[in-house]
Design brief:
The chain is of the alpha+beta class. The protein has helices at residues 3-6, 8-27, 31-67, 73-101, 122-143, 172-176, 263-289, 291-294, 329-333, 338-359, and strands spanning 112-118, 146-154, 160-168, 181-187, 198-208, 223-228, 244-249, 254-258, 306-311, 316-319, 324-326. Helix 2 (8-27) packs across helix 3 (31-67) and helix 3 runs antiparallel to helix 4 (73-101). It has two domains: 3-101; 112-350, Alpha-Beta Plaits. The protein is flat, with a radius of gyration of 26 Å. It has ten helices and eleven strands. It has an eight-stranded mixed beta sheet.
């Protein structure tokens, strides 16, 4: 029995759900419900089309098998040739359907907050954090996403101690979620007279921005809002008004700062960042409850895990989660992340698919 046969029941359930969504979408009048149903319809449609292609191919196989057994020799030979080709193609169509059926992160299409912090390695770590910030900014540009810095603490010579950016667009979190973790760099610092290779690190966190229908309640009495002067490198004031906004969520201890816009914009952005962090904390709580189920999953987003090494002398980038090494480090640093991210996504999907087959 093929994997497709074992999961036929789940595929049939998906088809039934699609038909119910279509029927409800045709009858709905509430705007919010229409948007929600429309999103689900769009997500299910590729799967339904893939299931239709498999079922059509299987039906054709039955017809060809009947034709190959009739009395017409010439017709039977033609049917046998088509049947052989179809038997090779059906498993590929089944695999496409199964991959589309694999569970997706509910925040796959969300925008994200990106946080980068220098780790061990002093000034070299800060320079590397700056490299990562620019790498993601260039990658966002290639994808057509909006990349906005919300807060940055730099060293004045190209290094970054800490940076927070908002990345807005369709599918940002689904694409960047694999970047959460410890990134390590091996290279000769410009300040190293002896030519010795140093190892430094920076941490990356990618948090999904909650979408409109996610209910994150923030009580006014639970937050403290402070305004202050925005500051740049070395503590230099970049403006002379109290435009920067710091919000403290007292129950959780979460603190967010936005200081690169007007006070009104900073306040709105800081509230968005707070909602994002609270949402991420709830996601983490739910994930911990499913820790055994998620163990080893590529997309777990453990920010304490060393995930990737950038070795400049050898020009290589190694992702330790999937043992993938590429020798195009200059291109990667310039934002050519797609080959790595696609390999990570494929492995994550394969693991989910394997878990589905075990449960079937």
């Amino acid at each position: 029995m093929s994997a497709y046969d074992r999961l036929e029941r789940r595929l049939s359930q998906a088809v039934d759900r699609f038909e119910r969504v279509e029927a409800r979408l045709a009858a709905a009048s509430d705007g919010a419900e229409i948007v929600k149903l429309g999103r689900e319809h769009a997500e299910l449609k590729p799967l339904i089309e893939a299931v239709g292609a498999v079922r059509a191919a299987r039906a054709e196989m039955v017809n060809l098998e009947a034709m190959s057994k009739d009395g017409d020799r010439e017709m039977a030979e033609l049917a046998d040739a088509e049947l052989k080709e179809l038997r090779n193609r059906v498993p590929e169509l089944e695999q496409v359907a199964l991959l589309l059926l694999a569970p997706k992160d509910k925040d796959e299409s969300a925008s994200a907050i990106l946080e980068i912090r220098a780790g061990t390695g002093g000034e070299e770590a800060a320079l590397f954090a700056g490299d990562l910030l620019r790498m993601y900014q260039k990658y966002a540009g290639k994808r057509g996403w909006k990349f906005e810095l919300e807060d940055i603490s730099d060293t004045g010579i190209g290094g970054v101690k800490e940076a927070v950016a908002s990345v807005t667009g369709n599918g940002v979190f689904g694409r960047l979620k694999f970047e959460s973790g410890v990134h390590r760099v091996q290279r000769v610092p410009e300040t190293e007279a002896g030519g010795r290779i140093h190892t430094s690190a920076a941490t990356v966190a990618v948090l999904p921005q909650p979408e409109g229908d996610v209910d994150i309640v923030i009580d006014d009495k639970d937050i403290r809002i402070d305004t202050m002067r925005a500051s740049g490198a070395g503590g230099q004031h970049v403006n002379k008004t109290d435009s920067a906004v710091r919000i403290t969520h007292m129950p959780s201890g979460i603190v967010v700062i936005s200081q690169l816009k007007s006070q009104h914009q900073n306040r709105a952005q800081a509230m968005l960042m707070l909602r994002t962090k609270l949402y991420d904390a709830e996601r983490a709580r739910q994930d911990s409850e499913r820790a055994a189920e998620r163990k080893g999953q590529i997309g777990s987003g453990d920010r304490s895990e060393r995930i990737r090494t950038y070795n400049f002398p050898q020009g290589r980038v190694t992702d330790h989660r999937i043992n993938l090494t590429v020798y195009n480090l200059p291109e990667v640093i310039e934002g050519a992340l797609d080959p790595i991210l696609e390999a990570l996504a494929a492995e994550d999907q394969a693991q989910k698919l394997a878990a589905m087959e075990q449960d079937a």
